[in-house]
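# step 3/5: fold
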Amino acid sequence: QVHVVESGGGLVQAGGSLTLACAASGRTFSWYDLGWYRQAPGKEREFVASINWNSGSSNYAGSVKGRFTIFKDNAKNTVYLQMNSLKPEDTAIYYCHAQGTIVWGQGTQVTVSS
């Protein structure tokens, strides 16, 4: 069973930066790409970025490409989301998800003030 736990959310001014972390555990977690998703109030959950544990290949939503970077630390079984040039519209609860499974983290709140 894969288990993921997010951390690192908070309040930041527009233009600022935050780094989120997703710690993965379980015997088979490396079988799956890990993705970050977000859900703003009144909106559907949307894809942000994902990374493959083995190849390191990554994908980004168009709205964050060039501002966000997803990377991993295999030794710590952790995937990070470095978020730069944050905008108020980035405000949401950010979730970590093991792609192709029903496994989601509890979410971490990111609030960007204007």
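# step 4/5: annotate
The chain has a mean pLDDT of 94.
# step 5/5: archive (pending)
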